Amino acid sequence: SFAYFTIKDRLPQILTRVIDTLHRHKNEFFEEHGEKGVEAEKRAISFLSKLRNELQTDKPVTPLEDELPDAALWNQYLDYQRNLSNGNGEPSWFQSPWLYAECYMYRRIHAALAQNPPIDNFDVFKEGKAQNFFESQEAVIALCTYFQELLKNIKDLEEKQLQEELFKLLQVSLWGNKCDLSFSAGGDSSQKSSPLQSLENMIPYILVNDMEKLWSLLVNAKKGNTEKSNIRIDIILDNAGFELVSDLVLADFLLSSKLADEIHFHGKSIPWYVSDTTKQDFNWTIKQLQSANHMWMSRCGINWEGNLKKGVWVYQDHMFWTLPHDFSCMAEVAPDLYADLQKSNLLLFKGDLNYRKLTGDRKWEYTVPFHQALNKFHPAPLCSLRTLKSDTQVGLKPGQGEQIQASESEWMVSGKYGVVQFDAAL
């Protein structure tokens, strides 16, 4: 399975890269912290090398030994996995659910640094996230330019035009890291139109397309909003870099078009899954845009900083997003977060990891309804914007999955296909 390939090949490669990153920053640690920094780097590397060895030799998963606030929850979850195995030995790296083993590795990477001050705040993935942002410059410029041009006459758009623009920006956000390639393909295409040219061709690859349902929900919320309460949309973020910029543009559009009054962004409280967005990434991205020497990029950055200051944009993170639990456990494990999400008019879940946690990462039949796979996780109407990078997919029409499988065996893991999949939470 794809899970086996991930644990066997991809995760050790990621650990090797993390170790290499720490090696390369040795001088920097020395300059900042003296010998203490170098000692901490050595300890962290030895911790990570041991972790890599445990993974590659299929050792049992061990309880966390750090004092971080989520350690007890992780260790309870390990006990739960032990009980599931019905005495068939300890859960080990290759004898555990993929989602758990993968999340556990990232939590152990975090522990390797967190337990080794003074380098405990070093984000081993930061360089890669910054590189993704800089390599996507053309796409970012094209998107910011398109959006700023759109804002000039957004007040005059008729409902139909507004809907079209929403659908375009939803698709740009959906294709996230794929779009940057198609934006800048050919390099010098007119930037105003470039975000749109590729989108038309991508529509056949959206396997479930519930954009109309999203539109109805937003328009009805706006029209039915007699108490004049704030319409709130929450975006549960995925990757930093270009994808984050596409999410911020979508969020700005929702505010500027008056489809929403406030946007809450949910990021990760620790570095996670290589490129996931932390608060540091979120603020860094807005600062980069602000200081860009491109007029429309800096205009976006300045406006977005303003949205945060005014409180119409709120960034929040919660420990739950970096636990191994499915979202169906949220009401029990993180009742405060669940109660907060219940205040939202719409939850937009970005990316593949969120989809796996929404559906419990099971090998569902393709035709199982999305609502059923959510397993009673219904805090508010929600929508998953996700390109397929793991072998879990629900809510397809009969025969749809099998038909694609016949000609493309890798369709579920290539990122070529996507879904905009909605659940009304009733």
UniProtKB/TrEMBL annotation:
Domain Damage-control phosphatase ARMT1-like metal-binding: 6-404
Keywords: Hydrolase, Manganese, Metal-binding, Methyltransferase, Nickel, S-adenosyl-L-methionine, Transferase
Cofactor entry: Mn(2+); Ni(2+)
GO biological process terms held by the UniProt record: DNA damage response; methylation
EC number: 2.1.1.-, 3.1.3.-
Catalytic activity from the UniProt record: L-glutamyl-[protein] + S-adenosyl-L-methionine = [protein]-L-glutamate 5-O-methyl ester + S-adenosyl-L-homocysteine; beta-D-fructose 1-phosphate + H2O = D-fructose + phosphate; beta-D-fructose 6-phosphate = dihydroxyacetone + D-glyceraldehyde 3-phosphate
Pfam families for this protein: ARMT1-like_dom
Top-level lineage group: Eukaryota
Keyword Membrane on entry: no
Example of a GO cellular component annotation carried by this entry: nucleus
UniProt domain comment: Subfamily III proteins have a conserved RTxK motif about 40-50 residues from the C-terminus; the threonine may be replaced by serine or cysteine.
Family affiliation: Belongs to the damage-control phosphatase family. Sugar phosphate phosphatase III subfamily.
Identification of the protein by name: Sugar phosphate phosphatase
The encoding gene: Armt1
